Model the fold of this input.
Amino acid sequence: MKKILLWVIGIISVLIITFFVATFYVKNNWKPLLEQQLKSAILNSTDSLYSISYKSIDVNPLSGNLKLVEFKLTPNLKVYNKLVALQKAPNNLFQLNVDKLVITKANAKKAVAEKKLNIETIEINHPQLTITNKRQSYNDTLSKVKSNKTLFQLIKNIFEEVQVGKIMLNDIDFTHINSNKNKTKKTAIKNLNISITDILVDSISQNDSSRLYYTKSIDIKLEGYKIATPDSLYFVNVDSLNFSSSKNILTVSKFKLEPRMGANAFYRKVNYAKDYFNLTFNKLVFRNIDFDLFLKQQKFKAETFNITKANISVYNNNAYPKKLNDKTGRFPHQQLLKVPLEMNISKINLANVNISYTEYDAASKETGKITFNNTRGTIYNVTNNENDLAKNSVMVAKLQSNILNKAPLDLTFKFFMKSKIGAFSYVGAVGAFDGRIANQIVRPLGMAEIKSLTVKKLAFNVNANQYKAKGKMRFTYANLKVNVLKLDTNGKIKKMGFISKLANIFIIRTDNPNNTGEFIAGNIAYLRPKTTSFFSFLWKSLFMGIKESVGVNKEKEKSINKSSAAIQNLLSNIKNTMDTIKKRRAERKENREIRKLEKQQLKIDTTKIITK
Done:
């Protein structure tokens, strides 16, 4: 047993010594060879556009492990400018720094003997990648794309096959610089993780349609992303973002636009009546994304975009001065055309979206609020791509909602994307509801109160552009009575009883149609002031139709204003007259009291004289 044990120990010792000697020899002879091959491969495959450098390299061919520390991929700008002059430059220029790159279980023997490189994993820690995009028009043509060499053609002189089980990029700092416009736009993302599975580069896989850039799946994950907006008023928060190329799905959970301060501090900072937003989107899902198109041409294309369970809250305080900027050319479809990223989304589906607008009114010192609850529907053909717009230039939005959680709304927009004056149309209807629910916004913001109103249906059809709106409204209702309000000397809202009675009797139509069957349709002909926003433009256009339907047209409105002024003057004169009469009565009463006292005093004096 002793001899056997000695033999075993001796054999193991010899094997260990042989292993270390062989490893040391191979390591020291392969390292410079590998460095040379690696640097020359990068230069040759990129036409000298890129070079690499690193602080240290540790390679073990026997185990198939390699570690690079402080690796850098750097573009040569002189070469790039030459390629631009020759119309051969790529759209994207890359700059890459990596803290550490680790390759495990690379089959070095097979790579040398058979020119087949098989690697189990590649792990890249904290890569800092900057992509500068400057689109070259000659890269957009199909013939040029086809003439470009494939990845396999670039490496086939080195390897006939490259296979990697998994590539993990951890904690990426990504910066994208868009140099296509006059003003360069920079976008940065941190804490990004990317996992690439089953990479295969060979003569067959380059034509495999089931693979995206030779991979079976690219998975992107971003968690806890937070960035401040350029105006320092808001934070953009994302709980998580996940993308899978194998499923072609991008999912964003809990996207928020949150104010960095409370409303009072916000208005003290901006010092004018600016909208104060608070947005939360629980789930955003893009499906069937053309990831290949995005990578090649930076064009975003998706079949559907689903927005589920969102809250959109807007507040304004009109106690602050208004900033009267020209808002011409800022309608939603006009803004879409200005987005620097070319996009095409076939359908945007909305479900359970709650929208609210709240405004504090300095005159009434009260706050009004209107809500659009459970907004849902679909927006079709959301695109700013010129080629797509040449085929179909109309974006259509079909929406349903519940106004103030009571009145059902059905609304269809058509946006004519190629119109130079921002043309659009909207058709809609509001179903039956008790009109008194509108008092929560009419009372504080309109200084009026709906005493009674049964709305049967409100339907409208309007054609508009950035300058004017023209259309018809059919407002069917019954038992309309209003109270006109004003502020008393104590700053409290009170009813103007006499004016309200005059308005209900002589001005407002109580019913439409009336008891004889006569129906008045409201005409909409509204010229938009340059400072009016899109949504304010919609409301003011519709309000004109409502006023005409209840009997207040332009002529009558002028007459009402004159009559109201005359009545106010009459009431003021009556009040002044009554005050004068009261004053004179008080003076006469005072004079009578004085004469009475004088008589009493005279009588007392006379009695004293007689007595004496």
Observations:
- Residues 324-552 form one domain.
- Residues 1-26, 142-147 have pLDDT under 50 and may be disordered.
- The longest helix spans residues 554-611.
